[in-house]
Amino acid sequence: MNTMNHSLVLTQGFRPPLHFERMPSIPSLKSLGFFGIAYKIALSASEYGLIRQLGPHYNRGFLYTFWLFREQLTEAGVIEKAFDQFEAYLCEQGFSARKGQIVDASIVPVPKQRNSREENKRIKQGEVTEDWSEQKKRQKDTEARWTKKNGQNYYGYKNHIDVDVKHKLIRSYEVTSASVHDSQVFEGLLDEDNRSRDVWVDSAYRSEEKLRELKQREYREHLQRKGCKHKKLTDREAQGNRTRSRIRSRVEHVFGVQAKRAGRLIVRAIGLVRVKVKVGLRNLAYNLDRYCVLVGT
């Protein structure tokens, strides 16, 4: 935060500026989904006072200030550092990673791009359409990709996370385009500091290569098995999947909480760098929320 230009947070012509130290709480609250209902209910006494301070220029002045602050977060690259710092704080408070880890990914949809077939072909090849104006280039996301899941097409990115079994806290994450297969970032997400060597993942990660990798790194694999039309699972394999699912399903609770808090999971940002900031804030906000739950129990 100290490396960021504080003067850029100030907006002119709308209202008195917000204090710089109050700004980091705003993206976290937004990631938790509170600002979707900010017009209807008060958040807390301090945040409600903040909204009242903004006055009639809330739509213009405040949203522009928040956008500008998020741009600074993007340029400074502080989201990953903030995530790691909070992870260290969790360990200090006795919430270190325990009882193994679960790796999974969720799709982060973004607004669909209305491009021609020729334009899409050039984008996939990494080329920029020459006849696009500078203004149009700023509005086009050339890094998001299509993917298919359960017979349905999605456009956007993926949020790959590693969750510890004991506390259901996100220990590491990676953001990629939606076309990147889950298994391609699997090894990089594994948490070496987890006190258990057990790893739970779904069948999308299962391959002979991944099994060898886990064995070499002395992990105990709990990978789901997947049958096919000509080779169905045996009763024992199906029972093994059900047993593993009791623990592996805990990662779905994380995605469920994020969906509930955000209201809509669509991310209105252009480019992988900005999407990483928004998704990173969402993951950090989840850990903050989860920490409050753990402390209260």
Helices and strands in order:
Blueprint: H1 25-31, H2 45-54, H3 58-76, H4 79-92, E1 101-109, H5 117-124, H6 134-138, E2 145-149, E3 152-164, E4 170-177, H7 186-189, E5 198-201, H8 208-216, E6 220-223, H9 235-248, H10 250-262, H11 272-296
Parallel strand pairs: 1-5, 5-6
Antiparallel strand pairs: 1-3, 2-3, 3-4
Helix pairs in contact: 1-11, 3-11, 4-11
Verbal overview:
With about 300 residues, the chain is of the alpha/beta class. It has eleven helices and six strands. Strands 1, 2, 3, 4, 5 and 6 form a six-stranded mixed sheet that branches. Strand 3 and strand 4 form a beta hairpin.
Q: Please, what is the average pLDDT?
A: 79
First and last CA, distance: 32 Å
Main beta-sheet annotation: 6 strands, mixed
Shape: globular
Number of strands: 6
User: What is the total domain count?
Assistant: 2
